[in-house]
Amino acid sequence: MEIHDTRKEQFMRIVELLKAHFWIAHLHGNTSDRCTEAGMPLYLEMTFVNKRFSPGSGIRKNLPIDGLDFPVRPGEAPYEFVFNNA
Q1: What's the burial of 27, exposed, middle or buried (CB within 10 Å: 0-12/13-18/19+)?
Q2: How much is the CA Rg of the chain, to the nearest whole Å?
Q3: What's the pTM?
Q4: What angle do CA 66, 71, 25 make, to 5 degrees?
Q5: What angle do CA 63, 12, 55 make, to 5 degrees?
Q6: DSSP string spanning the chain?
Q7: Could you give the CA distance from residue 66 to residue 75 in angstroms, rounded to a whole number?
Q8: How far is residue 34's CA from residue 40's CA, in Å, rounded to a whole number?
Q9: What does DSSP assign to residue 56?
Q10: Which segments of the chain does DSSP mark as H helices, in order?
């Protein structure tokens, strides 16, 4: 799923609703535009997995994943995510 304009309060409400039934399996900050005042990419690509089909193990604390995540424009630095509470 690609979410546009992560500044909106709707973004967090949608993610919280989805997390009730889905794990966030992966996310990738789309480098095609600027980021929010808080440093969050305006466009965020998120992959969800239904909790019925996955026990939720294998939590990754650092993204991007080499060989999987690439910037939209070659040569740009990818957004980095570090989750301390994962």
Answers
A1: buried
A2: 13
A3: 0.73
A4: 55
A5: 55
A6: -EEE-TTSHHHHHHHHHHHTTEEEEEEEEEEEEEE-TTS-EEEEEEEEEEGGG--------EEPPTTT---SSTTSPPP-EE-TT-
A7: 14
A8: 9
A9: -
A10: 9-19
Angstrom CA distances, 4 to 16, 17, 30, stand at 16, 17, 10
Query: For 23-52, how does the pLDDT look when each residue is reduced to its tens digit (9 = 90+)?
Result: 888 888 887 777 888 778 888 888 888 999
Instruction: Classify residue 28 by burial, with Cβ atoms within 10 Å: 0-12, 13-18, 19+.
Output: buried
As a 3-state breakdown, the chain gives helix, strand, coil percent values, each rounded to 5, of: 15, 35, 50
